[in-house]
Write a structure and sequence with these properties.
By secondary structure, this protein is an all-alpha fold. The protein contains 18 helices and 2 strands.
């Protein structure tokens, strides 16, 4: 029904106008004049506008509230990081504890209200909160709780000179983690339709609370990495760079000292998992916030099925890359900083390994894109907050490593002296940008492609338009088989809709030409080669997805666990200056690390949907 025209005068007119409004330019008669004259038509339209304005206002207000909280938290983090006068770690932890406590109260209220109304039908977003996603966040949450236990042990060891907030914070964080994982398991798919204004503020508060916890983890981990980097600079011959350590170690003794040292090192090795947990929780909560008050369509998302058959090649190559990564990281961490010769050898080894892996990943991504290009298949352009967030995060977080790569390229081109290992950095930096560009194209097209079964149905029967009052031409039907399929459906239609059924595909050549020209294709459809048709094509795409998934896990490991040639190269710090380059790396590196884990998660979804 056309918006704002009110109700049709008769059931037959209702059927006619509803189809015209939804079908677009089809050969059907216009709605009857009686359907256009209804004195009551302005009332529902104005009412709908009045209902949407407060919700839009609530969305704007809640997002601004979240940004205010986030900016305040970032300023506290910055003040603590630069040792601002009057701002200590206890002030920062008090603020974060208060945010977590407020989120806990909201989650308890939401869970309690949902339990009280559990018999009511609730709308669900089938794309959000996939099982593998909840499983991943549970794994990271378990490691985060272990990290909290280590922090409690660290507080007990240094209890003489630490404030009470450093003991309360890990306890509160562990409770917050447990309840949040329970909340996401049960309610990540919810489409909230009641108390929408209150829920918007509660969910956006949770989003930015997790983002601040993520920023706190990134800052602590970056300080640790920076201190280790400064200690290694002398071995590479950069003695003119200031190496004053930014140390926050308590000014008292810990008993027993061996246990305290082990706990301190263990904390920093677990930080990467805590960082991934916080950012993953914030993305799931953001999708929940976007779904508040959303109207869902009737199209249901197909259940993802994990199948391991036929992916031997991709799995073997990916596991080989993973094993090589672990070996390279171990050798790199052992040799870097020992001597100048060993440090240069470690850097050359890492660059050769990364160049080889990035070239293989780029070739695999190009092969997948090529298969998509020669296969005619429509894209799913339906509204989907989870899928849109995935695409935006892939492009947004890739910009972090692109920034570092461009900095390295400029440093190599502008430097006066070029140690031997810096020339390996040039192809490495270029390949980092090219590979992510190709991989983003492959992932985004994969998650926007319609499921295989749905596409086959569309090829058989495109769009059926109910036309009133004209006989069906035989040329409008694609084949006798299709006519046989359509005719029974027409007999089952209600009297108001009984008319003739015509196929948009085959009713004229113009639509076909338009469709082909919009895709830039030739009049004759391009077919896949025989060895890529049917099951073989799916197996090739699954092998590509499996290989890229394991490679992204492999490339997540080195920067997450201290293998960062951007720090140890040293050339960029001479060209740009120590502090500017360290600021660039500390800002961009968290996004680069998150990109690899998010790309791996997206590729797992692509694999399951192929």
């Amino acid at each position: 029904m056309l918006e704002g025209l009110g109700s049709p005068a008769s059931p037959r007119a209702a059927a006619s106008t509803s189809v015209v409004g939804s079908s677009g330019p089809a050969a059907c008669p216009p709605p009857s004049p009686s359907a256009q004259r209804c004195p009551e038509s302005p009332v529902p339209r104005r009412g709908g506008m009045r209902a949407s304005v407060p919700q839009k206002l609530a969305e704007t207000l809640s997002s601004q509230y979240g940004l205010i909280v986030f900016v305040a938290g970032l300023l506290l983090l910055l003040a603590w990081a630069v040792h601002a006068a009057g701002v200590g770690k206890s002030d920062l932890l008090c603020f974060l504890t208060a945010l977590m406590l407020l989120q806990l109260l909201w989650m308890l209220w939401y869970v309690g209200r949902s339990s009280a109304h559990r018999r009511l039908f609730r709308l669900k977003d089938t794309h959000a909160g996939a099982g593998w996603l909840r499983g991943s966040i549970t794994l990271f949450a378990v490691i985060t709780i272990i990290l909290g236990c280590l922090k409690i042990g660290y507080f007990i060891g240094f209890s003489e000179c630490l404030s009470a907030t450093e003991g309360v914070f890990p306890v509160m964080h562990a409770v917050h983690t447990l309840l949040q994982v329970y909340f996401l398991w049960g309610h990540a798919k919810d489409i909230i339709q009641s108390f929408k204004t209150l829920e918007r503020f509660g969910v956006i508060h949770s989003v930015f609370t997790n983002l601040l916890l993520w920023a706190n983890g990134v800052l602590n981990e970056s300080k640790h990495q920076l201190n280790e980097h400064k200690e290694r600079l002398i071995t590479l011959g950069f003695g003119n760079i200031t190496t004053v350590l930014d140390d926050h170690t308590p000014q008292c003794n810990c008993t027993p000292p061996t246990l305290c040292t082990a706990i301190s090192h263990g904390i920093y090795y677990l930080y990467p998992f805590n960082i991934e947990y916080q950012i993953l929780a914030s993305t799931m909560l953001y999708v929940l916030w976007k779904n508040i008050g959303r109207k869902v369509d009737s199209h249901q998302h197909q259940k993802m099925q994990f199948k391991s058959d036929g992916v031997t090649v991709g799995a073997v190559l990916g596991l080989t890359a993973l094993a090589a990564t672990i070996a390279v990281v171990v050798v790199y961490l052992i040799h870097i900083g020992r001597s100048k010769t060993k440090s240069e050898a470690a850097l050359i080894m890492f660059y050769l390994y990364a160049i080889t892996l990035l070239m293989l990943m780029g070739a695999a991504g190009l092969a997948g894109i090529r298969i998509y290009r020669i296969e005619e298949k429509s894209l799913d352009e339906s509204k989907n907050p989870a899928r849109k967030l995935d695409s935006d995060l892939l492009v947004g977080t890739a910009s972090g490593s692109w920034l570092i790569s461009w900095g390295s390229i400029l440093a190599i081109l502008c430097a006066e002296d070029h140690p031997r290992y810096t020339w390996y950095n040039l192809p490495y930096s270029i390949l980092v940008m090219v590979e992510k560009y190709i991989q983003n194209l492959f992932i985004i097209e994969s998650i926007h492609r319609e499921p295989e079964k749905l596409s086959e149905d569309i090829r058989t029967l495109r769009v059926v338009t109910v036309c009133n009052g004209k006989p069906v031409a035989s040329s409008c039907l694609k084949s006798g088989g299709v006519a046989g399929d359509v005719a029974p459906r027409g007999r089952d239609m209600p009297p108001a809709a009984k008319g003739n059924v015509c196929m948009r595909e085959g009713c004229g050549k113009e639509e076909e030409k338009q469709e082909e020209s919009s895709w830039g294709g030739s009049p004759s459809p391009v077919r896949l080669p025989r060895f890529l048709q049917g099951n073989a094509k799916r197996k090739v795409l699954r092998n590509i997805a499996a290989f890229l998934f394991l490679c992204n896990i492999s490339l997540w490991i080195p920067p997450a666990f201290g293998c960062r040639p951007e720090y140890d190269n040293g050339l960029e710090e001479i060209v740009f200056g120590f502090e500017p380059w360290i600021i660039v790396v500390n800002l961009a590196m968290p996004f680069s690390i998150f990109y690899r884990m998010h790309a791996a998660a997206s590729l797992f979804e692509v694999y399951c949907n192929i």
